[in-house]
Amino acid sequence: MSVQIWTYLFIFLSFGLYILIALWSKAGSTHDFYVAGGGIHPLTNGMATAADWMSAASFISMAGLISFLGRDGAYYLMGWTGGYVLLALLLAPYLRKFGKFTVPAFIGDRYYSQSARLTAVFCAIVISFVYVCGQMQGAGIVFSRFLEVDITTGVVIGMAIVFFYAVLGGMKGITYTQVAQYCVLIFAYMVPAIFLSLMMTGNPIPQLGFGSELTPEYGGGYLLDRLDGLSRELGFGTYTEGQKSTQDVFFITAALMFGTAGLPHVIIRFFTVPTVRDARKSAGYALVFIAILYTTAPALAAFSKTNLLDTVNNAQYSTMPSWFSTWERTGLITFNDKNGDGRIQYVGNAEVNELTVNRDIMVLANPEIAQLPNWVAALVAAGALAAALSTASGLLLVISTSISHDLIKRCLRPHTSEKEELNFARIAIFIAVLIAGYFGINPPGFVAEVVAFAFGLAAASFFPAIVLGIFYSRMNKHGAVAGMVAGFTFTAAYIIYFKFINPTMSNPEHWWFGISPEGIGTLGTLLNLAVALVVCRFTAEPPFEVQEIVRNIRLPGEHV
Amino acid sequence: MSDRNARSYWKANIRIVLILLCIWFFISFVCGILLADFLDNFRVGGFKLGFWMAQQGSIYGFVILIFVYIRLMDKLDHQYKLDQNETADKPHAALSTNVDTEVSQ
User: Which of B11, B18, B59, B79 should be substituted to probe chain A, the one whose Cβ sees the most A Cβ atoms within 10 Å?
Assistant: First the structure.
């Protein structure tokens, strides 16, 4: 069977499964719709959180990014997993004890002010929208490459599926679909990785394989030594050594960690478990499920980079295998024979280099490069879609709850009945799906850039405000709002300046302290903290009831 | 729970969190970034140690940290009898302030 037929089969089966789950888990109340009734088992929630968290970017792009960054790629790995330690130790149990539906609800109640609530609603919606557009676009790309339908049709199919289970089931539907999606995506990610590892090193565990010796067909010797040698020879710099400045790697890692811990769609998952203890456990399970993919990604990166360099380095263009021309047609590989010798020069020096390789193909083309069976390639397509749709649904729920609960119910129309609120939530999700779909079809050229934006903003706005709200009972609304506004504005201004207004200036010479826009969220976080603490010193302490809330969330159990 | 008990529970909690966060910082920022070049002088199989910490070890460390946290907190909750009658509280009920704490104020 051809890859295409396999792909149709897998996508049909997986989508059928998602629809069945949606029909089975209909939400009857806002409590169901927002937090799945609060009765999700921590293991189930951990799996759902993992799918919620691992987006199209983690699945499709991350291994490729690492293969081009070498050791520095670790900032994605550490940043996107280390954030869970912060989440588990500093946020999840306390927010679960607080027991509301959304992040803006916590900010609004803890800081006893509508302006704090509205600031949080604004941040949550901006962050989630930026993200969801990327997911829709990812879904579109997979459809168009593997099924050869056009991107519009692909996005519309994706939208219809997400719409169906998110509108019908809310958090309840989303949770159980995410569990299914996790299984699909992790299986799809691991199969090619295990195949590659076996083929190249004879070790079935990719995490160990990339530290092992190559099989004789691949020339023997440790894989990483070989990769280092090849990269050095071609002028790319040693793979296992850092290329970026230490302080930049440090700041980017920190920004991604704080951002991870401050992302509303991840935080709300912890409202769905029954107890505080379950919230802690579920953070642990979530990280285990995430770590399976995140420890495989660097192995995959090393395997595919070695494979790629081995295949193309100084090879005759006319003798390239068929995958080369397939991906050349999609524009993800481009070859420009500058010196006209008919051979491929793939080197670090930009003037001599003749080949450009898009990072995304490292995962998408792996099955073909390694000549794996057709069903593996189709599986990767289904996995990438699962990753994109699961994250999209979590984000859409944040947008919908921010609007129906925090904006309409808590600010504009306090007398809204539960039934009306549920309707508003469904309408909000519907509109959000349409807008996200529109941006998926007509992606603004800057989707990739704005991801840094989302993390930076989450790090500089939510993370400090929530942590201070829990750990510093003296923190008042003046301090929190001033801190959020300062952190948000500073981070946004720095990113907008270097990414959009003056991109030519975006280099270490002009960056403050050598910190790239991706890492500036860390400074934003520190600024937020500093401003909040100073302003708080000079303003009245929060009312007694609020300090009482803080005392209450610090103790697990109901009988405080 | 009395106010004094609540305070000492919180203190113990903070201690656990601080210690674990120090380890968190050490395995990621110190071993994976600041000392990575130095650790690269040592090898484990085909891995240079600094590279391995950055791309593998730190992640395993994070997982272990969270499970240690879960264990320590379970023990602490048990010690302060906070793990009893912890029921699936309705989200709406959480805000209700507690009489016990107010009396001891």
Answer: B59
B interface test, pick of A240, A270, A278 with most B CB neighbours within 10 Å: A240
Length of chain A: 560
Distance CA A345, CA A336 (A): 9
Interfacial A residues in 277-306 facing B (CB < 8 Å): 277, 280-281, 283-284, 287-288, 291, 294-295, 298
State both tokens at A388.
Answer: 């994109």
How many percent of chain A have pLDDT more than 70?
Answer: 98
Inter-residue contact A49 to A262 (CB < 8 Å): no
d(CA B46, CA B19): 32
- The H or E element containing residue A455 is helix A447-471
Average pLDDT, chain A: 85
pLDDT tens per residue, range A53-85: 988 888 888 888 888 888 888 888 999 999 999
| A–B interface: beta-carbon pairs under 8 A | 189
Residues A444-491 pLDDT 10s: 655 556 666 788 888 998 899 999 999 998 899 999 999 999 998 999
User: Can you give A392-436 as a three-state secondary structure string?
Assistant: HHHHHHHHHHHHHHHHHHHHHCCCCCHHHHHHHHHHHHHHHHHHH
| Inter-chain CB proximity B47 and A280 less than 8 Å | no
A66 in contact with B at a CB cutoff of 8 Å? yes
Confidence at B103, pLDDT banded by 50, 70, 90: very low
Find where tokens 């099955």 sit: A367
State the pLDDT at residue B59. 95
Q: Does A42 reach chain B within 8 Å, measured CB to CB?
A: no
CATH T-level assignment (fold) for domain A3-443:
Sodium/glucose cotransporter (1.20.1730)
Which of A349 and A92 is assigned the larger pLDDT?
A: A92
Closest partner residue to B24 (CB to CB) among A85, A291, A551 is: A85
* Rounded Cα distance, A64 and A42, in Å: 32
Question: What's the pTM?
Answer: 0.88
Alpha helices in A143-222 (DSSP H): 151-201, 206-209
State mean pLDDT over A347-362. 81
Q: Are A390 and A179 in contact (CB under 8 A)?
A: no
**Burial class (CB within 10 angstroms; exposed 0-12, middle 13-18, buried 19+) of A342:** exposed
CB-CB neighbours of B105 under 10 Å: 8
